[in-house]
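Lay summary. Proteins are chains of building blocks that fold into shapes, and those shapes determine what they do. In this project we predict the shape from the chain. Here is one chain we studied, written as its sequence of building blocks.
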Amino acid sequence: MGPDRDQRYDAVPPIPSYDEAIAGGSRSASDGDWQRRDDHPSSADIEAESLLSSRQAFPFSTSTHNGRGRRPQGYRPPTVESEDEDSLFGSDTDTDAEADHVRREMQELEVDDSDERSRNRSSWGKRIGFSLSLPQWRWRWRLPRLSIRLGENQSGGTTEGNEETPRRRFAFPAFGSTALFLLIGRALAILLVLGFLYLLFMSDILTNMTGRMNSRMFDPEAVRSHVQGSVDPVKIRENLKHFTSFAHIAGTEGDYALAEYTEKLFQRYGLEDVTTDVYHVYMNYPTADGRAVQIMGPDDKPVWSATLEEAEVGGETAGRQTFAFHGHSKAGDVKGPLIYANYGSREDFKALQDSGIDTSGAIALVRYYGTQGDRALKVKAAELAGFAGCLIYSDPADDGFLKGEVAPKGRYMPSDGVQRGAVSLMSWVVGDVLTPGWASKEEEPRMRVDQTQGLVKIPSLPLAWRDAVVLLKHLKGFGQRVPQGWEGGVPDVGEWWTGDHTSPIVRLKNEQDENTKQPIWNVYGRIKGAEQREKRVIIGNHRDSWAFGAADPHSGTAVMLEIARIFGDLLARGWRPLRTIEFMSWDGEEYNLIGSTEYVEQNEQSLRDDAVAYINLDTAVTGDTFRAAGSPVFRKLLLQVLNRVGDPNYNTTLRDLWDRRQGQLDGLGAGSDYVAFQDIVGTSSLDLSFDGGRFPYHSSYDNFEWMDTVGDPGFVYHTLLGQILGLLILELADRPVLPFDMPAYADSLSHWIDDLESWNKNDKDANHGGTNPIDFSLLKTASNNVAMSVREFEKWEVSWENNVVAASGWEPAGLGKKRAEYNSRMALFETDLLDSVGVPNRTQFKHVVFGPQLWSGYDEAFFPSIRDTIVSGNWTLAKETVDRVAGVIMKAAANLVI
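And here is the predicted shape, written in a compact code that computers can read:
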């Protein structure tokens, strides 16, 4: 861009006369004028002086040159050199001699720039950031003169008499001369430059220059420290407060508002490719007058009605609290005699039938937790036992004042607390129950509601123990006294009875709104990787909740958003990971893990090919005990991270606390959004949390005030979880060699096979009275193959590290490609453990090792397909399944070999 002023108005320096110039040098005879000009130089003065200096630096005259770089101080008229010796500008002898000298100087390219070098040397000294006394080299950096005489006769004269001919001279420098030293030095310098260029092109620097130019400037340890130190409990608290400020069941207006808010946050944080992904799924919603639990009188009129709803705890700003209901429950209005069935397990219902109690057409009353933790399987067991409906209440013996102080000041459910939740069969069908196995996009086909195996076929409702106490009192004298261990902690019941077909008649009404194409909204944002952009480390948390959801799910939401902010800030500073990082806000998790499952089914092949790891946050913070469940490949990395994070309340590291309680990496069942990743596409998954035992689960008491005062005052453990998550992401996404603990997987596989064999011999469901003939020797052989392959596989990493260290940190492109292949083989190991057949009758679940138990959705069941076929008693199918699973494991072991 040109100057912004009119240079025509700048003052010009005075031009000295010839006599003044030769009398006083290049300055004016008036020293006073020059002094004033030096004190206050104008821009024209500076420009003129620089122009003058540049002319003086060129040595047309050497009579005042001292040979050491000073400029000539005397003014001389300009001269013009010519090949014509009769030139008009060279009439005297002195001028001819000077012209000859200048000609030789120009032929030898000896332009004196010593002052320029002096200025450059000073500038360079500043750039390196510290002071050094650089040597003042005396020689000029030029090639030695090489000349060849052309056209000489034998006597040494010229071929044209006295006429001089052009000639080239070549004289090899004498041994030990300065010229030879310079020649050798320059040759070595050229070789050094060529070697550097070779390394540059052979390495992967230029290949990845676009993405990694800035990120290579960041020291990995500095990035770790920055991430760990940037987690802000104040920001986490603000996130939680906003997301719990109103009710937001999946698919509702409140849920949509939070989806938009999440999208804007991702954009504000600088994440890339921020998108909202819409699916259309089956959902049900309660209506104000559509639910009732009543005791009917002889005239079929209600003599008592349950309150159903909790006390209002949200306040005016929170809007209406969510009605008490079960997601995916069956609509209906049924009546029948009331029968109490303890925890609602299959064993409990069998005990009733064995005692002669007729349960057909009755209304079951069961309590949460206990021997059957999955509420959906309680309802399903009641359905299979012939009941017409099922009521589930929260008992103080399991979750109430008998355990400790109740909410809002404590962890346990108060008398009016209601545990909402879905009763879809997530261990049988996961995701949208009308599209099992394919994504539920609006244009896609879907099953009818009465066709799916993912829904129960009798209506159900949740109750507070405040309502259950009335029902239990009315059972006195009907049926039998309950067996030992069946009595709960509801006060004032007195004697506990089972009830029978003569019990008081109870009405269960559950009329609801249903929509087979209800929109839900997943929100995604990413940071693209620089080296392996297609490889993805995914972090997920669901956004929908049954009520306000402080612990479930927004303790995880608040942490995930804070980490997204920190990594977005790193991206803005120029950092970029080797592999892509993706943040996912799932919708519809509470309704059978819909949002994450539909995403996985929509992107099944790309996830199998390129998903490296999935980290799940759900009910992330309810206390101070760190827990983790997931694939064994994370074991070593997790312990390294825990060793770096300190708990201020215990004044020690989380690793120390983990070791004190002999912590273990638990298995994965079917409790949260990791299911589709681990069990459908074989992405190694990890679920993280700080556990505190009970909390007011799925009730309106799980709100911001509870978390702020009881769950995690000061948000200490939210902050620690953020540090853990951030460090895990860094290692998985930016470490050159993927930090998977393959030996841990091999060891775990061997232990799981031993546990399977023990279960096969001792469990009554598996043993079948001692007739079980299943042999696991082939499965053990497959496990040994994995162990041997892992030992060989890990040798390559040692070799790679030695090569890179030996090359002072340089990695040639060929070795970089092998490293990428090595990482891919590690990430694909669990994908190779998928069986295309799937678990019999539960074909969505493909993983041969991980999967939910058939009758315990929240608990892991290693080798689910083998267990299911053994329980069925079909020995032919069971043997075929063992052989097939062993074959899958052997193939996965073979694929590890490089």
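What the prediction tells us: The two ends are 58 Å apart (CA to CA).
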